Amino acid sequence: MSSIHRDPTAAEVRLLEFLFHTARQVGFHQLSLRGLQVANLKDGGMGSLRLFPISTDWSSQQFGRAVSACTFDDEDGVAVIATLYLDRSGGPFELDVWRTDFGELIRIPEDPARLIRTTP
Length: 120
What we know:
This protein is an alpha+beta fold and about 120 residues long. The protein has one helix at about 10-25, and strands spanning about 35-40, 50, 65-75, 80-85, 90-100, 115-120. About 15% of the residues lie in helices and about 30% in strands. A hairpin with a 4-residue loop joins strand 4 (about 80-85) and strand 5. The longest helix is centred in the first third of the chain and has 16 residues, at about 10-25.
């Protein structure tokens, strides 16, 4: 994992907003992008992120479970699966992005209608 925390890009925010909205629909109402920082994970360029919510003791976070997921086609037509994971206390923990050919992600869709909700 990269140790450099940064603000999410506009494209990452679109994807996270979609996944957070989906998670809120199944009861995870506390999820917020406010103050959220991210760090790139070493995943071969597929776009996975470690999530760092504001006012969280990141050193004590423990992996919890998947709460929302979606699929979309990358610019070249390759399927991509994005999954939001929470920590054990219910806070944002990780965005796992998997391009099904293990290649580098080209682009997160600008149109949220291209994101298709799936079951994690």
